[in-house]
Amino acid sequence: MPEELHDVSLRVNGITREVQVPGRRLLSDALRHDLALTGTHVGCEHGVCGACTVLVDGRPVRSCLMLAVSADGTEVTTVEGLGEPDGGLGPVQQAFSECHGLQCGFCTPGFLTTITAGLRENPCPTHDEARDMIAGNLCRCTGYQNIVRAVERASELIAEGDVVGEGERA
Amino acid sequence: MKPAPFAYRRPTTLEEALAVLAESPDAKVLAGGQSLVPLLSMRLAAPALLVDINRLPDLDHVTATADGVRVGALARHADVLASAEARACQPLVALALGNVAHATIRNRGTTVGSLVHADAAAEMPVVLRLLGGSVDVASASGRRTIAADDLFLGPLESSLRPDEIALEAFFPALAPGAGVGFEEVARRHGDYAMCGVAGLVRVAGGRVVEARAGYLSVSDVPTVVDLTDSLADGVTDASLAAAGEAALADLDPQEDIHAAADYRAMLVRHLTGRVLRAAHAHATDERGEPDHA
Amino acid sequence: MTTKMFGTKVQRVEDQRLLRGQGRYVDDVGVGAFPGMLHAAVLRSPHAHARIVDIDVADVLDVEGVHAVWTHEDLADAMAEPLPLLIPHDALTHGRTQYALARDEVNYVGEAIAFVVADDRYLAEDAVERIRVTYDFLPAVVGIEAARAATHLVHDDVPGNVGARLDQHVGDAPAAVAAAPHRLELDLTIERSACTPLEGRGTVARWDPDTSRLQVWTSTQTSTGVRAAVAAKLGLDLGQVDVITPDVGGGFGVKINHPWPEELLVPLAAKALGRPVKFTEDRREHFISSAHERGQVHHVEVGFDDDGRLLGLDVEFWHDHGAYSPYGLIVPIITSTQLLGPYKPDNYRVRFESLYTNTVIVTPYRGAGRPQGCYVMERTMDAIAAHLGKDRAEVRAANFIQPDEFPYDHQMVFQDGRPLIYDSGDYPTMLEKIKALVGWDDFETVRAEAAAEGRRLGIGLACYVEGTGVGPYEGAHVHIETSGRVKVATGLTSQGQGHQTVFAQLVADVLGVPFEDVDVVTGDTRRMPYAVGTFASRAAVMSGSAIHLAATRAKEKVLRIAADALEADEDDLELVDGEVRVKGAPGSSMSLGTVAVLSNPLRYAFDEASKSATQFSVGDPGRPPVAEDDEPGLEGKDFYSPERSTFASGMHAAIVETDPVTAEVRILQYAVVHDCGHIINPMIVEGQIHGGVAQGIGGALYERMVYDASGQLLNASFMDFLMPYVTEVPDGIDIDHLETPSPLNPLGLKGAGEAGVIPSSAVFAAAIEDAEGFPVTAMPISPSELFELRRQHASQPASQGPAPEEQS
To answer: Which positions 33-52 of B are in contact with A (Cβ < 8 Å)?
Structure first.
C-alpha cells in the first residue's frame, strides 16, 4: 500500500516551494533531497549535533526533529539563504572565513544559522554570551576556539554596517 | 534512522483532534516533537497515526495570574522561559527551564509535551510535582485535571490515556514567604542531569514551615521528598546535611553508564543542601532573585 | 610583486563553497542530478556473537519500492571472499577479516548481514525490518580481560584470541631494570573511543553500460585504495573504475580503513541494477559498524637512577583489536615505538598481544596508538618524579635526546617497516617554552592561593614525539593552462585540513603566480591515479613535497621555453605575478599563459593566443616540433618518496580544578608548544591544534565506548557518547611554536594533523593526580570515577603525586 502523500508549501530562503511528502519525511530530508538544498547537513538525526539547524519562522530549529509536513506554511531559512543578495558572503559567513571557524565544514551550516538568529536577538554579545550562543552545536574539527571568535567578529561586521539577515531573502 | 510509516493528521480544531484520537487506538500526539521524533527515527516508537496538534487554536499561551502560571500545550519552552510575568509569578519554572537541553531544542519543544512525556530525567515534570501543579487534559468524552502527583506512573509513562490531549499545565504561584532553587549536575552542559534538585522552602515567622525537594534522574519517576522536619530548627550546615540524608532515605539512586549509584547518592546529598539553602535565601529575601549558582 | 605565501595566514579557498552550503559531500552527490538513484540500507547483526542458521528475505521484495536484496549467498567470486587484510605483518599470525556480508557467523553487533536497495532510505529501512534471521547464539568475548582469559573464543581457529604477538627490544631491559637502584611497576589502562566525524561513511556509485565504466564517490581517506579494492572485488580492470572523493565531513582515521562492505556493495548494486545507488551511514550505524580505537592495557616495569634517568624500560601491553584485524598491527606497533617520546632509555623492551573481542573493529583514530604510548611513558615519568620527590619537568629533561644527537637512531622498526630514526628536534628548548607558557615554576603559588579559597588545583605536563609523513609516496601533477591558471592534482584526500589552500600556497611560491590562480584537486583518481592516502599526519609532508617538486619541474619547463622565446639565459629569468621576466629588463616578459601556448605545438588554433603556437608561426623546421626528450604541454609531475618518516614533537600542559564535592574537572588553562618544522599556514596549523586538543579533552574526560558483557554498545548515540560542546573546552588555548625543520624533505616540513590529541590523557591524568594526591591510572576519567577513587584513597594517607608500587 503506497504511503499517503501530503502537500507541503514552504517559503524557503524567500522562495515558495511545493513538495509532496509522506508524513514521516523529516524536514532535513525534504530540504536536502526533495528541494536539493544540500547545504543543510545531517549529523546525528536525533537532535544532538545541530548540523541540521535551520531557521523556521526565524527561530533556530533542528530540521531532523521536525516533520516536513509540520513545516507546511512556515518560512524556512537554510545556509543557502544567508548570503548577500549580490552573492557575497553574509556577515556570519564572512566572519567564519576570516577567523578560520571551519575545517571540514560539515557542522558549519548549523552554526551559521544558529549564530545568525542569535546575533539578531543579541547583536553585541559578551564573550560568554558568544560562547553560549553556540553551546548546542557539535563540531569535531575546530575545538570551537575560532568559532567563538567568529561570533564576535560577525558582531563587529554587523555593527560596521551590515544587518543580520540582510542577505536573507526572507 | 528513518521513521516507520504512519498516517498523519493535522486537525485544526480540538474537537476534530479528539475525535481522531478516539477512533485510533494506536495514535500519538505530536506537539514539539523534540522527544518523540528521535524515538520515531530510531524506530523505538512506531505509532499507526500521528496527530499533529500544532494547528490547534489558542494553545500557545503563557499566562500568569495571582494563582500561578498557565502554559498552553503549544507554548514552546523558549516562550515560557522568556515570559517575565511567568518568571515573577513562579521563578522556579524559568530556573529549571534554563537547564532544559539547548536553546534550539527549547525553540521547538513544548513544556506541556515534556510533562506528559514523563521522563524522570527531565526538569519540568519534577518542577510540576514539587509545586503541586496539574495538567488539564481533554478527550472526546470530556475534560479532566490531573494533579501532578497522579500524573507520573513510571519511566516515560504518564496517566494520560491514549485518547487524551494535554491542553494546559498549571504551575502554582510562589506563595508568600516561599523561595525556590534549582540545580543539577550533568556530564556536559545541556545533557540530561546525573542528578537534579528543585527545592522549595517556605518561611513564616522566621521559621521554616515547609521544605520540600524534587529529584530528577534518581528514580523511575520524578520524586518529591518532604524535608520540613530536617530544617525545622533552622537552616545550618548540619540541618542541610540532615536534609540530604533524609532525602536519600526516600530515594534509591541507581547506576547508569554516566554515574555510579554512590556518586548519585552523593549528588543528592550535596545538591539538596545547596538548593535548600538557595531556596531559603530566596524565601527570606523577598525581592531577591533565586540563586542561580 | 608576488608575496611569498609560505608561512602566511592565508584564508582558505575551501571556505567560499563550504560557507555557502555549496560543499558537495557524499550524500549530496547526485541529488537532483542522478535520475533514478536508489538508496541502500543494511541489516546488521543485533548480536555480538552468533552463528547464522538461516536468513529469510522472502518478505522483503513485497515492500513497494524495494529493488533488490543481497546476502552472502548472492555474492560470487572475490566478493564472496573475506575483505582484504590491508597491512599484513609477519607477527599477525592470525589475521582475520569479515565478509562484505556475513557468511555463517557474526562477530560483533553491527556486522553487515544483508544489503537492501530501494527507492529511498525510508523504504530500504522498512525492508530491512522484514528480514528474519535465525541465530545460534555463542558466548560473547568483551573486553581485554575476557579476551586474555580466553574462556571463550571469538574465532574458533584463533587460540587464546591472540591475533598477534610482537616483541621488540634494544639492549637488555629486564636485566637493566633488575640492576637499577630504583624500580617501579605501573598498570595503566585506556578505554575505547572513536573518531566520530560529524559526517559518517557514505558511498555513491554509477555504472555506465555504454563505456563499461564505474564511477564511485566515497567519503574516504584513500581514493586510490578504494579504487584498487573495488576493481579487484568486482573483477574490473583498474582502468574501468574512477573513485572521486567529494568534500569529506571529517575523518580522523576511521575513513582510512577500506573497503567497507558498503564501498563494495554499492558499486556491485549499481552495476547489477543499472541505476545509481547511494548508501549513507546513519549515526547509530557509525557507532556500531565503522571502527573504534584506543582500548589497551599496559604493564610497565622501569628502572632508573637517582636523577630519574631511565636505565631500563620493560613494557608489555594488550591491544583490543575488536572482531577483525583489517588494518593489521599499525596501532599497537605505533604505541610500542612512539611510547619512547623524546626520551632515550638505554634498554627498552616492548611486547604486545593483539586480542580479538566481539566488538567493533579497531583501526587508527587520530594519534593512532600514540596517545596510549604517550600516556604510558608520561605516567611513568610522573611516577619516577613522585618516587624521587623531584620536579616532573626536571626528570623529563634528564632523559631527553639532546639537540646535538640528531639523527637519533632508536634501533627499532617503526610502523612503516623502516628504522625508527628521529630526524630533528629540540626538546630542552621546547620544555622551557611550555614551562614558561603554562607558568610551571609559579604554579605552587597559584595552587596555594586557590587552596586558601578551598579550591583544588593541579598541573600536568606531557611530551610526545610523533612520526609523521610516512611513505611509501605521494605524487602531484601541475598543469599551467593557456589562461595562465594553474591546475594542481594530488591523489590523497582532504577532510577539512585546508589542503586546497596550503598546496596552492606552495605552488604560488614556486611559479610566482597569484594564489588565486591556483586550483587544487585532491582524491580524484581521474586526475592522479597514483597515491596512498591521508593518515599519519602525512599530507603536508608527502603531497606538499610532491607538489613542490612537481611545480619545480613545471617551472623548469617554463624557464626553458621562455628563455628560448625571450632569447635570454634561463638564469636571467624570474617568475613574478604570473609572468616570466628578464631580470632588470622591464618590458621583456611573457605571461605564463603564453608560455603554455608555446609549450604545445598546434596544428589547429582555438583562440587568438593559440595562433602563435600553430605550425606556420613557431618552431624550427629542421627539428621535430616536440623534442625527443620533451612532451607537449606545460606540466610538471613528480613523486616524493622519503627514506623514512619525519618526527614532529610537542609538549602540552594543563591546569585543572577538581570540585572537592562533585569531582567535576574544570580546565583552567591549556598550553601547547608544537614543532612541525616549517609551517606553511600558521592559521591552519593552529586550527588543527585546537581541534586536536578538544578531541583529546573528549577522550580524557568524556568519551568512551560502553559495552555490556553481552557485547551491546550501550551508548551508541550523541546523547550518551559525550563529545565536547564549546562548554566543555577551555576558553582559549595558549600556543607557542618551535620550528626544527626536517632535513628529509625540500621544505623542512613535519606533520601537524594528529598532534593536538596525542598527550591529552597523559596531561589530564597528571593534572588530576596532582590535584588529588593519588595515582590516576585509568583513562578516561569521569566525575563518578574520580569520586570513587577519592573514596578508595580516603582511608589512606594523602601523598603528593602518584604512589605506584615499588618493586621489592
So the answer is: 33-34, 37-38, 40-42, 50, 52
Show the cell assigned to C44. Answer: 546488521
Chain C residues with CB-CB distance to A134 below 8 A: 726
Task: Report the candidate in C117, C320, C94 with the shortest Cα–Cα distance to residue C204.
Answer: C117
CATH number of B1-174: 3.30.465.10
* CB atoms inside a 10 Å sphere around CB A40: 26
Helix (H) or strand (E) holding C443: helix C443-452
Q: Determine the pLDDT at residue B286.
A: 55
At C79-135, the pLDDT tens digits run 999 999 999 999 999 999 999 999 999 999 999 999 999 999 999 999 999 999 999
In a domain, C11, yes or no: no
C51-to-C60, C103, C106, C139 alpha-carbon distances in Å: 22, 9, 6, 11
In this predicted model, what pLDDT tens digit does every residue of B46-83 receive, in sequence order?
Answer: 999 999 999 999 999 999 999 999 999 999 999 999 99
Assess whether pLDDT exceeds 70 at residue A1.
Answer: no
Task: List the domains of chain A with CATH numbers.
Answer: 5-81 (3.10.20.30), 91-159 (1.10.150.120)
CA distances in angstroms from A145 to A89, A140, C6, listed in the order given? 21, 12, 24
Residue that wins the pLDDT comparison between C624 and C376: C376
Q: Which residues, listed in sequence order, are joined to residue C460 by a DSSP beta bridge? A: C654
Q: How many CA atoms lie within 13 A of C559 on its CB side?
A: 18
- % of chain C with per-residue pLDDT over 70: 98
Residue C242 and residue C230 in contact, taking contact as beta carbons nearer than 8 Å: no
Chain-centre distance for alpha carbon B41 = 24
Edge-first strand order for the sheet with C132-137 is C105-106, C50-56, C132-137
List the CATH number of the domain containing C633: 3.30.365.10
Length of chain B: 293
A135 to C498: CB separation less than 8 angstroms, yes or no: no
Under DSSP, the state recorded for C749 is B
Find the closest chain A residue to B4 by CA distance. A24
- H/E segment holding residue C785: helix C783-794
**Which residues in chain C are contacts of A138 at CB distance < 8 A?**
198, 718, 723, 725
Chosen for mutation from B44, B197, B263, B272 (greatest number of chain C CBs closer than 10 Å) is B263
Contact A62, A27 (CB under 8 A): no
Per-domain boundaries in chain B:
1-174, 178-284
β-partners of residue B158 are B152
Output the pTM of the full model.
0.96
What is the residue range of C518's domain? 474-640
ipTM above 0.90, yes or no: yes
Give the closest residue to B217 by CA, choosing from B244, B176, B187, B242.
Answer: B187
> What are the residues whose beta carbons fall under 8 Å from the beta carbon of C396, sequence distance 6 or more?
C342, C343, C381, C431, C461, C463
Chain C contact set for B43 (CB, 8 A):
125, 129
Polymer length of chain A? 170
CATH topology of domain B178-284: Enolase-like; domain 1 (3.30.390)
| Host H or E run for residue B280 | helix B261-284
Cα distance between residue B101 and residue B103, in whole Å: 7
Say if residue B223's pLDDT is above 80.
Answer: yes
Q: Are strands A75-77 and C105-106 parallel, antiparallel or unpaired?
A: unpaired
Q: Which amino acid is at C41?
A: A
